[in-house]
Amino acid sequence: MGTHEEQDVGxxxxxxxxxxxxxxDARGVVTSWTRDAQRLxxxxxxxxVGTDVAGLLSAEDAARMPELAxxxxxxxxxxGLLTARHRSGRPVRLMVRITPAVEPDGxxxxxxLLSDVAGARGWDMSRTVLEQMVTDSPVGIxxxxxxxxxxxxxxxxxxxxxxxxxxxxxxxxxxxQPGIDTEGIEAQIRxxxxxxxxxxxxxHVGQVRSAPHRETAHMLSFTRLEDDQxxxxxxxxxxxxxTERHRARQRLALLDRAGELxxxxxxxxxxxxxxxxxxxxxxxxxVCVDLLDSVLRGAEPEPVPRGDTDQVPLRRAGHxxxxxxxxxAVVEIGxxxxxxxxxxxxxxxxxxxxxxxxxxxPLAKEWATDIPGDRTATFxxxxxxxxxxxxxxxxxVTLGVTTFFRRHRQDPFDxxxxxxxxxxxxxAAVCVDNARRYSRERDAALVLQRSLLPRRLPEQDAxxxxxxxxxxxxxxxxxxxxxxxxxxxxxxxxxxxxEVPGHGIDAAAAMGRLRTAVRTLAALDLPPDEVLAHLDxxxxxxxxxEGFGPEEAGVQQVxxxxxxxxxxxVDGQCTMAAAGHPAPAVVLPDGSVSFVDLPQxxxxxxxxxxxxxxxxxxxxxxxxxxHTDGLLARGDRxxxxxxxxxxxxxxxxxxxPTLDLRCxxxxxxxxxxxxxxxxxxxxxxxxxxxxDQVADWDLPADPAVVADARKEATxxxxxxxxxxxxxxxxxxxxxxxxxxxRYADGPxxxxxxxxxxxxxxxxxxxxxxxxxxxxxxxxEGGRGLLLVSQFTQRWGTRFVPEGKVIWAEQSLTDPPA
Length: 817
Description:
28% strand; single chain; disordered N terminus; seven-stranded antiparallel β-sheet
């Protein structure tokens, strides 16, 4: 289609100049046929004049002619759509207007105007209809010229304020609606004028003159108007109020943001602060969250006094403001504000019902008293004008209140805002209550942890020790891994590391039982393989008695692992055994790292071959590294034992100023912040007692040697400067040597060790342990060990391959009187 043809189609509008006219007589016979009509339908005047007009129409519309003739006579005319038959036979859709025409001679005729609607932009209507459509439309419509000045607007636009249609004429939008983003809207109009491309669905939020204190949202669409030559004449735009839809969208966005940001941790104060942070973004200008102090402690909420004269303390858990520094806050986070019992916050706290005030009394003060620093102020001074108070309730319990204020936003809180605030707080309340319950459970778990893991390893001179523990369960901070250092007789120590399957309180409780059992067995001074054998029997028997099945092994001790090491600082000998546990690593004084070739026994309670011990001599300054398998766990199934040990070797070869820093550096190097499994690492650097700290004598089994043994012991104490212990030591030596001569066979050996305590040991070849008796006053003997127990801090017996050793210790820091 050429340019002229496009303009012809564009000019096909329903007016007298463009329509094809023809005349009908009163009976509907064509009396006049014009060239325009011939151009439209291709019939000549000779073919049409004198025929019934119905013959030019489709069969359906021809049948309607009697009805249309009656409507014309009744209404004085008619306008509508009809389908005519082109001379070629094709249908032609026409817009038809019929009006009465009276000839000079008084004869009645009908003037018919025909307009082809094919190719037109739409259904061509009369000016009256078009004016009704735009003038009476409920949608606001306006037209601006190329200078962006209003040239026409309909009545619906007046609902937004800015004056009547007449008052808008010739004015720019900034003069009509100064409270909206006129620059942004006019930029859209200029864009449409320049490009000719319409803009549909442009959303704007602002304050129109009809609601100056309320934020409203509107959707605008812009279309360029052109003259017949296609030159821009201006822009017409429509305005629809979408405030409710906008607010509903804001509510959903706020709730989505709350679901995403509130409750990311199980910290009560952080959760309260997250609630305040979320609510300030687009809903309120100042928010404060006050909780009962008992809630912050993780306890059950305490009853609130209901008397009118009582005062109720709440603790500020979180607040936020649109203004930097939260200037509206008269109570800092963590501080206590005492509210009057009859004040709105406390009424909401007691009744569990929300409270709303659209307009606060400007001269009233906040409802708190006894605020530190006397920072009370009136609502006018704080700039607050509207408030919502919503109780924080979860699972039927009220934990505190959240107060929402508006300051900059002039529209007060309405019922919809209250419903939104209640929904927001209810979501946060569950998170706060979860955090409260978690705090309570975590406190209980931490108490359990402190009671199960050693708070401080005992002081001793056999090894320098450091330990690091990192649980996989970050919620409870507890797992089944554990470590311990136990002092033994003869200045020796036992180093223990173990693990129980599973995590959390159940695993920790099982670990506690296992650790207690190890300590009990260690007190018997048994070799490592025997300790593990007894422990294995105990675990298996307990599982059988308590009815645990294999599928429940994760919550009890069956399948637990343990490595037990005994180190003697007198000769540097180290003995160890393992039950389903990684072998320790040894860092020699020159920094080289090796791994002990330790036979692996079965996990505890699982049954299997007996446990085996290995013994090795360690040079002074060597470091033992006992660890659980979580230290090398990477969550990588392709990882091999050799590769894992290489990683541990490289970590152990790194130097650090102290053993404690070295221990933590190893864990940090091998274990992520969220480990795949619990991790325990115990590092012990060996020491040796000096030759001047140990003295020993071989004694014959002759009663006469007892006196010589006392003299040698006294002489040695004099060299060590321990003369104050001479009397009790002579007594201990005399009784122990006498018992060995009387009841045992084989050689007798006396040894004194000066460590943190004075240790007296007498070894013999006997296999029976002495028993402490309580003789009657008439008995002549049996008081030897009773005297030893009274004059020493502790005593006992341990068995060795050659027989047994009876030992007794006296403190060097507080010797007996």
